[in-house]
Write a structure and sequence with these properties.
The complex is a heterotrimer of chains A (about 170), B (about 120) and C (about 270).
Chain A (H helix, E strand, L loop, with lengths): L2 E6 H12 L9 E10 L5 E10 L5 E2 L7 E2 L1 H13 L5 E8 L10 H6 L4 H7 L5 E6 L4 E6 L7 E2 L2 E5 L4 E4 L5
Parallel strand pairs in A: 1-3, 1-10, 6-7
Antiparallel strand pairs in A: 2-3, 2-6, 4-5, 7-8, 8-9, 10-11
Chain B lengths: L4 H7 L5 E7 L2 E10 L8 E7 L9 E4 L13 E6 L2 E5 L11 H13 L3
Chain C lengths: L15 H7 L1 E5 L3 H13 L3 E5 L17 H6 L3 H12 L4 E5 L15 E4 L4 H13 L3 E10 L5 E9 L6 H4 L4 H9 L11 H20 L8 E7 L4 E4 L1 H4 L20 E2 L1
Parallel strand pairs in C: 1-2, 1-4, 2-3, 4-5
Antiparallel strand pairs in C: 5-6, 6-7, 7-8
Helix pairs in contact in C: 2-4, 2-8
The chains are: A alpha/beta (about 170), B alpha+beta (about 120), C alpha/beta (about 270).
Amino acid sequence: MSIQFKLSGALYREIMRDLERPHRFAAERVGFVSGRLSSLTGSAKLILLTRYHSIPDEYYIDDPHVGARINSEAITRAMHAVYHGRSTREGIFHVHLHQHRGEPRPSPTDWREIPKMMPGFQAVGPQAAHGMILLSADHAAAWVWLPGQGEPTTSGSISVIGVPIRVFEREVLR
Amino acid sequence: MEYPKEQIEDLKRYCKKLSAVTEGGVTFLYLEGLRLPAGCQPAECDALLCPEPKDGYPSRLYFSSQIQGPYTRNWNVSNARIVERNWFAFSWRVEMANPTLSQLLIGHLNGFVKEK
Amino acid sequence: MSSDRYSRQSFLGLDSQDLISKCTIAVVGLGGGGSHVVQQLAHIRFQRYVIYDYDVVEESNLNRLVGATLSDSFAETPKLHLAKMTIFGLQREARVRGFSSKWQENPEPLRECQIVIGCVDSYKARQELEIACRRYLMHYIDIGMDVHGKDPPVIGGQVILSSPGSLCMKCMGFLTDETLAREAARYGNAGARPQVIWPNGVLASTAVGLAVDLVTNWTRSDRIYAWLVYTGNENTVRESHTLRNRQATSCPHFSNADLGDPVFREL
């Protein structure tokens, strides 16, 4: 199953600008981005990212054991976005930035914590795709929970439609 | 664009399901399973009604397939891509002052049953 | 293969060849304009193509169809085949998905592209392509030429860049309800339109230049919209006066609400 992502250059810059901001105590920032599910040839899927939801500073929990921890209010806001996006099959993707160059890979903490959110998102928006997007300084990767799927599929590519066009392709399999 | 509720309800009589969809700033009414006048083949199809001026017409009705009717028509729209489907329309101008949506629809469907 | 092959275009940037080879580009219409475009894209090293044309080579095409020969007109070679031969003749590893149909009959492959170059021959066709590009996030580059008037005739043409989030062809003043209505009224009476090779060459080259800049940003101009007017009689390509006089800075015709598949709101 091939999954491609696309987002505008403006949205990509908005996300990067937000995630690069320092936080008072969190080592990194996280956010959510909405994405609409569409079809390509055969069973291939296209996810178009539409809006970014920045997480206010006060929604972070001071936990020195992880890079960032967000509170239930942040999750609730994400759930609201899923609820209001149901008619457009708009799901939600957790997004954060690893400060290095090259294809990013989820850390053990990422794999432990982020998938826990997916059943809740799927319950509220069962027709949409949800998941996580990981950015680096010059690359990106995503893992998608398609409707009805309990396990994620790694996306094949993420295209930033701006100037210059960037096509981040999966080089390393999970 | 919003239409009076009673006009929407009245329009629903002619099809199985009525929806609105917007593309490029234009709002279309999507009539799923529109019943066509007697003598048309097929007897029903999906249709898109554009009550606003479009392509030089004061309003337009698009069909999901080219319809065989009692009279030969100039199907000057073939496989037009609107809301991610392909649509067909014949040249038929409906000139009415402030029609309701149903009157507009019937005005277009008359294109099948009126010689001119 | 020698590493010198692309050395003359190294000014496009250190990673330009990598960026170019990863871009999926569509060319809709492989006639007088599209045949030029495909040839240039292949020379530059674009590797991934989605191309559409349902027509075959006829004798009347031979004055302008790049790559076509007399034999092709006798054999009624599909224009799609010509385009594929051009691409594979320069890029053996290219991935080409070609459709001998209108793009509307096979729309899904178009959505995988980052750039669509439209070489179509009506305002309606341009409008439909632009809408698809806005829905599925693709840069749209449009080219077209015409010859009108007499004593002397005037060759005109345009190259337009319409990018998601930026000015569309309606914003720029190129597509208007009046031009669409006039075209609809002329339907069936269009006749054979005058076409010659050299304006197509100018327009195709300009379009390919825009495409390469979108991929590499080698000019550092960050350009996301353009309307360039070709005046064949003067041999000039200039920014449109209409665009220059427009005040619009954002597009009211397409929004994020239009992204992706259409949303039908039951009434």
